[in-house]
TrEMBL record, chain A:
InterPro entries: DUF3333 (IPR024573), MetI-like (IPR000515), MetI-like_sf (IPR035906), Phosphate_PstA (IPR005672). One of its GO terms (biological process) is phosphate ion transmembrane transport. Pfam families: BPD_transp_1, DUF3333. This is Phosphate transport system permease protein PstA. Gene3D superfamilies: MetI-like. The lineage of its organism: Bacteria, Pseudomonadati, Pseudomonadota, Alphaproteobacteria, Rhodobacterales.
TrEMBL record, chain B:
This is Phosphate transport system permease protein. The chain crosses the membrane at residues 41-64, 161-181, 201-223, 260-282, 294-315, 335-357, 390-411, 457-482. It comes from Nereida ignava. InterPro entries: MetI-like, MetI-like_sf, Phosphate_PstC, PstC_N. GO terms for cellular component: plasma membrane. The gene is pstC. It holds the Pfam family DUF3708.
Length: 456, 490
């Protein structure tokens, strides 16, 4: 004590309001520390902003496409030599037979518009158009045989180079090394734009159409793979929801505390963290090799949405179980006690009272699980959904589950792998569609939670 | 197809059982429900379960048994002379199945009569042409022994299917009868139904266990097969990865592990500071308004599918980095040859992991009792001193767990590295070099054109096993730490 009283006078006398050097240092450290936090959050939000602006700025182009409207005379002497409109005879004319008609029609467009160009060869002129143009004509003629002999105006896709030129992706310098198009073509395109023959407009076939081969990016669409995703999500919904809910009910309401329960719990939390690619391995080895190959179940084959759905079901289960258990836990015990008190069995208590009260929470968790499954790509790579060109719509609902198909994220990956940069634009566009789906699902989940959330 | 029909028949019988048993229960008490032990529909369900459950179980077991039996007896039919050099019975069985399925299709489409399909012979008929006309393409002409095997395969399968139909319907009818017989006013139907329901719930809960088992088995069997073709010592210790599909590949896992760890390290260097400081700011400093705004937005990053990040790495971040660090770039250093590199994948993966680290740490920091903070602040510490010297040390085990979980995520991430990291397996220190990872190689080895039985394809399973073991280990440790930490403050 004496030491303390001796030391006291040594202390500098000074107002508390005057900040000394050490306090300054501490305050500066405080401000710095707070700054780090703000920087970190800003950085995170900045990344988000950059990501979203990149997606939108690079992807919106995919929704519009350049079209060239060309009046084509469907000459009878080429398409139906016998003149009796026999469908079989008309079908015999391959797309090759339509080429001259298209060339002539393009020459006519040039002559009529008074465009000046060095290009005269039909083959060179046709390079302005997508190679799907003749197929489009043929399909039209087979559909409308009465139009043979008439002049019909078609809206053809411009070739992907022309489209790229109009969207600013392809420049004249690029074409010096490109066999597919030359600068003269672009001069012609410039004149055609002025005359209104070439127009950029909304392209619904990107959203609803089928994928096309590597050489026709302008024709590729996401529609078929969207169906593939839809069928997979149906499988996930109809398997993961009941299994997940049943598992959660058991673990939350019935399970005794024993070894088996512990094992199941540990398994569920571990499965939630297993890399998704490992589920792909499971799909390949168990569903495709064992069930499809060894047991000979025909529906279990590579690229089938059924297999994809099964794999995604196993992946989604932990998510659904975890959220369902939380929802069940939130129902107060008084509800259970009341039901048991009036003579309901344990099972009746759970199914008649607890489950309906937990339903909104379960639904929210399920939608979020589905959204996760919808965006998952890695396991689909291994079960063969990438590399499959989804160019045909499934014939029926049943074959939608078993016929090879692609899925939205797999289709996007497939486009990202292709060499032609025109596909990159479509990949970004596909991402916009995918994100719109995910956003809608999440918003529905949030609204459901807001609308039905109960505080006990 | 016959399976689905059979299932529908069984379900129909189940519905019939429900109606009959419910009716019998009601009529036995003259319509006075109070005299029954259980409510009437429980009697129906009880009989229904007795009808459906054993029949469906038999169907499944029969399916397994029949394919095993048929496969082995058909395999015996293939003479040793028909097995060419470099082929196995397994591969020929694939041909047999393909031809048998092709014949089925041909019969279904009317290209063949069912008698003709059973008596075709390679000499007289153009099998390839017939099957080709119904869309089943065969690589080569059909060996007579294979055709014979395929025909007997079809015969056995169809007689098996008939037998199965009889047996399954028989069991269902037996169940129906028994269920109907035991229905009486005193029968405890509700208890029996609830017992079955309980077993169903247990079965659903065990799906998680079976999934894990399925993963382990599908990886292990193929890995063992791989190690029979390729020495395990070389796989784990060799420093070269150069698969060549002609044979003579060197399949050392080390360069892949190096790439994986390097990319994960960069990702964690981005994600951990950013995520941790975000979590600290959000939980300790931010006003409720800022929190309500920033937290969901950060979590949007977690909801974006990985394919989007992969594309972002490939098409945006890669070219950007080349512009800075590449040949003729802003810095004038020529470190980076192409857009795909460890740095590209690492940075983007780091962005992906930010919300993961921040939301986990946020939970953990919030779990630190307020009393600790109050004590520290009361002694005159500034908020930052409180956080650094009290909150973080208290939360440290949990934060370490969160970081380990993030590391496990990074190691198992596939799409970003497939698109952003490159394909060359090399051991290099330069973060701007292209390297490849375990996950990327699993994809490339299994999606190539390699023969499925070759070591080049099977190595993917050994890689998957390595990956599974590493991530499982990390997860178990991390979850253990997190759980222990939670208990500490509960």
């Amino acid at each position: 004590m004496t030491d303390a009283s001796n030391a006291a006078p040594l202390r500098e006398k000074k107002s508390l309001l005057v900040v000394d050097a050490r306090t300054k240092k501490r305050n500066a450290a405080e401000a710095r520390f707070k700054m780090y936090g703000i920087i970190a959050i800003t950085l995170g939000l900045l990344f988000l902003a950059v990501l979203l602006t990149t997606i939108i700025s690079r992807g919106t182009g995919a929704f519009t496409q350049t079209f060239i409207s060309v009046p084509v005379e469907l000459r009878e002497d080429k398409l139906d030599k016998k003149g009796n409109r026999n469908l079989e005879d008309i079908k015999k004319v391959s797309t090759f037979g339509y080429n001259p008609l298209l060339g002539d029609a393009l020459s006519a467009v040039i002559a009529e518009g008074g465009f000046t160009t060095e290009i005269t060869k039909s083959k060179e002129l046709r390079k302005l158009l997508s190679s799907s143009a003749v197929g489009q004509m043929r399909a039209y003629v087979i559909e409308n045989t009465d139009q043979i002999g008439q002049t019909v105006t078609f809206d053809f896709f411009a070739s992907s180079r022309v489209d790229g030129y109009i969207k600013g992706r392809v420049t004249r310098e690029d074409l010096a090394r490109d066999k597919n198009l030359s600068a003269e073509h672009l001069d012609l395109v410039d004149q055609m734009i002025e005359a209104g023959v070439v127009r950029k407009k909304f392209n619904p076939s990107f959203i609803f159409g089928a994928d096309a081969s590597e050489s026709r990016p302008e024709q590729a669409g996401l529609g078929v793979s969207m169906l593939g995703s839809l069928f997979m999500m149906l499988v996930v919904l109809f398997l993961a929801l009941p299994i997940g809910v049943a598992a959660s009910i058991y673990l939350e309401e019935f399970a005794p505390k024993n070894r088996l329960t512990d094992l199941i719990e540990v398994n569920i939390s571990n499965l939630a963290a297993v890399p998704s690619i490992v589920f792909g391995i499971l799909g390949l080895a168990f569903f495709i090799q064992f069930c499809g190959g060894y047991l000979g179940i025909a529906a279990m084959k590579a690229s089938a949405p059924l297999v994809g759905g099964l794999v995604l079901t196993l992946m989604t289960l932990p998510t659904i179980i975890i959220s369902t258990r939380a929802a069940l836990k939130a129902v107060p015990p008084s509800i259970r006690d009341a039901a048991l008190g009036v003579g309901a069995s344990k099972m009746q208590t759970v199914f008649h009272h607890v489950l309906p009260l937990a339903a909104p929470g379960i639904l929210t968790g399920t939608i979020i699980g589905l959204a996760q499954a919808l965006g998952e790509t890695a396991p689909l790579l291994l079960i063969g959904m990438v590399g499959y060109i989804a160019s045909n719509y499934p014939d029926s609902v049943l074959s939608g589950f078993t016929d090879p198909n692609s899925a939205m994220p797999a289709q996007i990956f497939e486009w990202a792998k292709r060499a032609d940069p025109a596909f990159y634009e479509r990949a970004w566009g596909g991402i916009i569609i995918l994100l719109v789906f995910l956003m809608t699902m999440n918003i529905i989940a949030i609204l459901l939670r807001r609308r039905f959330e109960r505080r006990w | 197809m016959s399976g689905i029909v059979l299932l529908l028949i069984v379900l129909g019988l189940g519905a019939l059982a429900f109606i009959l048993a419910r009716g019998k229960a009601l009529s036995s008490v003259g319509g006075d429900q109070r005299a029954l032990h259980s409510r009437p529909h429980y009697y129906g369900f009880s009989a229904s379960i007795l009808t459906i459950a054993p029949a469906v179980a038999l169907m499944v077991v029969w399916g397994f048994g029949q394919s095993t039996l048929v496969q082995s007896s058909v395999a015996e039919l293939i003479p040793a002379s028909a097995i060419a050099e470099g082929q196995t019975v397994g591969l020929l069985m694939g041909d047999v199945q393909r031809i048998a399925n092709g014949l089925d299709t041909a019969v279904a489409e009317g290209a063949l009569s069912s008698d003709a399909a059973a008596t075709l012979s390679t000499g007289a008929d153009d099998i390839r042409g017939i099957l080709g006309s119904v869309g089943v393409a065969l690589g080569a002409d059909v060996d007579p022994a294979i055709l014979k095997a395929a025909q007997s395969y079809r015969a056995m399968q169809s007689s098996g299917a008939t037998l199965r139909m009889i047996a399954v319907i028989g069991v269902a009818l037996l169940g129906l009868t028994y269920g109907f017989m035991q229905t009486s006013a005193t029968y405890r139907a509700r208890n029996s139904v609830e017992r079955s329901m309980r077993w169903t719930l247990i079965a659903a809960a065990s799906v998680a266990v079976f999934t894990t088992l399925g993963i382990v088995f599908s990886v292990i069997f193929n890995t063992i097969e791989f190690f029979q073709l390729y020495p395990a010592k070389d796989f784990f210790l060799s420093l070269t990865w150069s698969p060549s599909f002609g044979g003579g590949s060197e399949l050392g896992v080390f360069p892949l592990l190096w790439g994986t760890l390097y990319i994960s390290l960069i990702a964690l260097m981005v994600a951990v500071p950013t995520g941790l400081f975000s979590a600290i700011y959000l939980s300790e400093y931010a006003s409720p308004k800022v929190r309500a705004f920033a937290k969901p937005l950060l979590e949007v990053l977690a909801g974006i599918p990985t394919i989007v990040y992969g594309l972002f790495a490939l098409l945006t971040v890669g070219p950007l980095l080349v512009n800075v660090f590449g040949d003729g770039g802003i810095l004038g250093v020529n470190w980076m040859q192409g857009g795909t590199a460890v740095m590209t994948a690492g940075l983007v993966m780091g962005i992906m992991l930010i919300p993961f680290v921040s939301s986990l740490s946020d939970d953990i920091i919030n779990a630190v009792p307020q009393a600790l903070r109050d004590g520290s602040l009361g002694l005159g510490a500034t908020p930052s001193e409180t956080i650094r010297q009290v909150v973080i040390p208290a939360a440290l085990p949990g934060i370490v767990g969160a970081i380990l979980l993030a590391a496990s995520r990074a190691i198992g991430e596939t799409m970003i590295v497939v698109l952003g990291a490159g394909a060359a397996a090399r051991l290099s220190m330069n973060p701007f070099d292209a390297m490849t990872t375990v996950t990327a190689k699993i994809v490339s080895q299994l999606t190539g054109d390699a023969d499925f039985a070759s070591p080049e394809a099977l190595v993917a399973f050994a890689l998957a096993m390595t990956l599974f073991v590493i991530t499982l280990g990390l997860n178990v440790i991390a979850l253990g730490i997190v759980r222990k930490y939670r208990e500490q403050y509960e």
